[in-house]
């Protein structure tokens, strides 16, 4: 069984509650979304390299580490991504899935840590969100709100009010675009106490 891969590399996890840990990234090719501030536009229309899932999983050990993130692009745009997630979990890795929320999450293995990016109005893609995905998220899962404008911030607050759950809630300034100190001020004044401000550590470190 094959899947189209853009790249596989090891770096420092720059986002989520796993921020700061060494992590292996499997970046899958392609994404049907077209976010205005996408930071991987070169991946969106890439066809990638077809790779056997067996080969991917068996060779990850050479990179070292126990945390693997499957990202993109949009990984769930490829049907075989579910099999990849299962195989990684069966191998004993702590598996993270970064997804836009535009695809159903019901088939994602239960032990995978879901990181769902909710796209605000400035992205132009807010209508792609499948709101039924919120009912699937568990306490270990995370919802991340990239914020580039005041409208994005208010949209994030409305989503939290509508779908407040035990899942972790993160807010991150889009870079470039949103000054982190401004977003921090908004959060202090108006944000829910369960929302965590997060900067993209990999960009601060100038790492992939």
Question: What is the topology?
Answer:
Blueprint: E1 2-12, E2 22-28, H1 41-44, E3 49-52, H2 53-59, E4 67-71, H3 81-90, E5 94-99, E6 113-117, E7 142-147, H4 150-162, E8 168-173, H5 180-190, E9 195-197, H6 201-204
Parallel strand pairs: 2-4, 4-5, 5-6, 6-7, 7-8, 8-9
Antiparallel strand pairs: 1-2, 1-3
Comma- or semicolon-separated keywords:
alpha/beta; TIM Barrel; nine-stranded mixed beta sheet; globular
Give an overview of the whole structure:
This protein is an alpha/beta fold and 208 residues long. The chain has a single domain (2-204), classed as TIM Barrel, CATH 3.20.20. The protein has helices at residues 41-44, 53-59, 81-90, 150-162, 180-190, 201-204, and strands at 2-12, 22-28, 49-52, 67-71, 94-99, 113-117, 142-147, 168-173, 195-197. A 9-stranded mixed β-sheet has the order 3-1-2-4-5-6-7-8-9. The radius of gyration is 16 Å and the shape is globular. It starts with a strand and ends with a helix.
Helical content class: 10-25%
Largest sheet: 9 strands, mixed
What is the level-2 CATH architecture name?
Alpha-Beta Barrel
Order of helices and strands, N to C? EEHEHEHEEEHEHEH
Number of helices: 6
Alpha carbon gap, first and last residue: 28 Å
The gyration radius over C-alpha positions equals 16 Å
CATH topology: TIM Barrel
